[in-house]
């Protein structure tokens, strides 16, 4: 089945894709506002708002929100990213109207009760503390901040404790007023759903919303830099980033295939060289992530204090080697893994609904699956080698290190090795 799209006069978009033989449905509201849409003094408010949506409305208490979905065997949750906030549920076919009503209620009518704000503030401060105590979690926030310093896209999604401690009702309502207009919302559903029925259910809930001006996020600027945090840990955590294509760039899929071949699986170069051959680490990977106007290839490994220098230098060497001798079988394997991941994910209504929302946000339409498969298949060995070569000559490095890192090389050393 192909996706169906309806746009209400106020700009609110509804996208669905029915999945025959499925008795459950995934439905959610995706808001085109995340951490990168915050002002500096607002950092963390998008995530705080996501939490508060579940703390009660004029019609439902926090417990009732959970019970109404769970009483029918469903599941409800949310997340905040740098570019979007999502509120979603997984339910059975008959309960789609209930899920839509609950989702609309928590997004459009949050109570922002003063007592609940204080309770959730404590929860979020604990979440921030937990992240700080998790080296292989916090290091990616530091890497993002290093790659995009002083920019909204570089700031932590959770925010800083000092700011979270100050947020109140007015801060939450201001962000809603600025970014939760109907033109910034996408209602997406997949599985046991009927498009016309969902549109009919959505119209009385969303059609009355007045359009609002869209506040454009500050453009991203990738910057070379490093952050080093010494701490007495068992492992030295090494994370490095190179700027990569954005979602709509012609070489987006080339970058995805390259990072997969470099460090996306057990058969990848980094895994085989650094773990299997040399035993320098337990965890090592590379991945390519994208935003609307930038992207990053991120490489990560955890190793011992005595090995971090060798590991960092060998990682650079593997990137350089890929530009010279990446083989066709490696590229074919990475293409196959990418296509399999895409197609397997589409068997899950929740992943399909999320994909619909993101594609509609990026392209203003939902490209047919065959377009994505064709673009993946078009990536060849020559293109991957050229992409690796471009990274060597046109990209700077961002580096984050955490733990016993006294013997870790500095950014200047790694940059010179990359360029040599």
Distance between the termini: 51 Å
Oligomer: single chain
* Helix amount: 40-55%
Strand content: 15-25%
**Which overall shape is indicated by the principal axes computed on the Cα atoms?**
globular
Given the structure, what is the number of helices?
A: 16
Helix/strand-derived category reads alpha+beta
Mean pLDDT: 95
Task: Please state the CA-atom Rg, rounded to the nearest Å.
Answer: 23 Å
- Describe the main β-sheet briefly: 6 strands, mixed
Report the uncertain regions: none
- Strand order, biggest sheet? 1-2-6-3-5-4
H and E string:
EEEHHEEHHHHHEHEEHHEEHHHHHEH
How many beta strands in the DSSP annotation?
11
């Amino acid at each position: 089945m192909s996706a169906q799209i309806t746009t209400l006069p106020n700009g609110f978009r509804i996208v669905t894709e029915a999945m025959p033989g499925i008795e459950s449905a995934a439905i959610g509201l995706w808001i085109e506002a995340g951490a990168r849409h915050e002002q500096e003094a607002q950092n963390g408010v998008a995530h705080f708002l996501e939490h508060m949506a579940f703390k009660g409305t004029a019609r439902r208490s926090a417990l009732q929100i959970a019970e109404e979905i769970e009483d029918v065997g469903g599941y409800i949750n949310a997340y905040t990213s740098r570019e979007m906030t999502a509120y979603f549920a997984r339910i059975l076919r008959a309960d789609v109207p209930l899920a839509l009503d609950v989702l609309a209620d928590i997004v459009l009518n949050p109570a922002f009760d003063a007592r609940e704000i204080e309770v959730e503030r404590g929860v979020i401060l604990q979440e921030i503390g937990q992240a700080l105590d998790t080296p292989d979690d916090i290091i990616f926030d530091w890497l993002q901040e290093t790659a995009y310093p002083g920019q909204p896209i570089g700031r932590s999604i959770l925010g800083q404790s000092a700011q979270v401690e100050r947020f109140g009702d007015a801060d939450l309502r201001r962000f809603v007023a600025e970014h939760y207009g109907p033109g910034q919302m996408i209602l997406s559903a997949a599985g046991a759903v009927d498009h016309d029925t969902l549109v009919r259910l959505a119209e009385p809930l969303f059609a009355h919303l007045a359009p609002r001006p869209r506040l454009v996020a500050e453009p991203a600027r990738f910057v070379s830099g490093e952050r080093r945090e010494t701490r007495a840990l068992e492992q030295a955590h090494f994370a490095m980033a190179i700027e990569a294509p954005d979602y709509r760039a012609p070489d987006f899929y080339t970058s995805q295939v390259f990072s997969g071949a470099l460090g996306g699986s057990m058969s990848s170069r980094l895994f085989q060289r650094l773990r299997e051959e040399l035993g320098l680490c337990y965890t090592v990977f590379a991945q390519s992530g994208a935003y609307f106007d930038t992207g990053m290839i991120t490489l990560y490994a955890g190793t011992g204090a005595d090995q971090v220098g060798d590991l960092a230098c060998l990682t650079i060497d593997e990137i350089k080697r890929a530009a010279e001798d990446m083989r066709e079988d490696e590229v074919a394997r990475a293409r196959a893994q990418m296509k399999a991941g895409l197609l397997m994910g589409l068997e899950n209504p929740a992943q399909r609904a999320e994909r619909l929302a993101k594609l509609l946000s990026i392209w203003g339409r939902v490209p047919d699956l065959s377009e994505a498969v064709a673009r993946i298949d078009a990536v060849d060995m020559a293109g991957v080698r050229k992409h690796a070569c471009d990274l060597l000559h046109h990209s700077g490095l961002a580096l984050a290190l955490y733990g016993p890192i006294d013997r870790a090389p500095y950014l200047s050393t790694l940059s010179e090795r990359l360029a040599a």
